[in-house]
């Protein structure tokens, strides 16, 4: 699970780097994926230590939950702006949607992993 957190942290940082390379105009929303990717990457590295894995992966899942909620709310507000006829920056929306999808995927994978670990611990054997 630690390696998965590292991969998702790097993917979130890559989304930011791609957005920065595409345009010269810099917007705060372009940096949101990196703000969630770096702590997730750090949790993945800390989780490589077996004694700290449980806490690090739960913190990474909490970061992913915050990323999902933040990105989802930003996307929802942007959708309302579009429906009212207000122009929205499409690159910023693509970055936010990519962050939301990546954080949601990591959250689902981590919840499945937590459930499997708990089942393994509870089964006698």
From TrEMBL:
The keyword Transmembrane helix applies. The keyword Transmembrane applies. The chain crosses the membrane at residues 31-48, 60-80, 92-115. Keywords: Membrane, Transmembrane, Transmembrane helix. This is Signal peptide protein. It comes from Rhodopirellula maiorica SM1. The lineage of its organism: Bacteria, Pseudomonadati, Planctomycetota, Planctomycetia, Pirellulales.
